[in-house]
Amino acid sequence: xxxxxxxxxxxxxxxxxxAAAAAAFAAEDASLALVDLDRSALEKVAAGLGVDDARMLLxxxxxxxxxxxxxxVAATRDRFGTIDVFFNNAGVEGATGPLVDTDLETVDTILxxxxxxxxLGLKHVLRVMTAQGHGSVxxxxxxxxxxxxxxxxxxxxxxHAVVGLTRVAAVxxxxxxxxxxxxxxxxxxxxxxxxxxNGMSPDDxxxxxxxxxxxxxxxxxxxxxxxxxxxxxxxxxxASYVSGSIYTVDAGMTGI
Length: 256
Known about the structure:
It is a single chain. By secondary structure, the chain is an alpha/beta fold. The chain has one domain: NAD(P)-binding Rossmann-like Domain (Rossmann fold, 3-Layer(aba) Sandwich), CATH 3.40.50.720. The chain is built from 8 helices and 7 strands, in the order βαβαβαβαβαβαααβ. Strands 3-2-1-4-5-6-7 form a 7-stranded parallel beta sheet, sandwiched between helices. The protein is globular.
């Protein structure tokens, strides 16, 4: 899957899956536009990729802010001339707990990043892709986008919304030759899972990890690179007939 001459835009690029995707696309010779809130974390990711400056753009932006989203899209287009792949990946887990105990600050935080942020990325990147007549978008949803998890109500709601946005965008962008898909990872060995584990049971992290791993047929967490490999496939020409699909990357979780 050679991405030489193609530009890949990744939000949430300093996180576990975002960084793994950046490494996977870098290995396939893509030019990279990496977006995150944390400049130092972005620089750390970039330093490990072995990509020269001509093929790399780092951009600090809040995906909830429309002007800043317009800014990262314009910066990418201005630097590289095109946006061939968009990994719409930025997201937060928020506080865990029952719906009846969830405060509005948690609701607003999760929905603003995971839904508003995903929507704004689609809105402004799809304008570029439809104008150029090609492109591939991969949204990051979650297994929480297709099944329910107690204690993760607003995260679950937000990731269901990403699934809906993916399907609508795929239909609307298809006439312009643009594909839109989503990945739904199961438990992945990332900072986000550490946060969820701690929120579920701070006094028994190993027990929570065993419980989550036990929900999968393979009885383990994914490495972020295993999710990135599916993102790479969906972004590539090998997936030229794949659009509007919701790819579960869950080690059989939904089959048990």
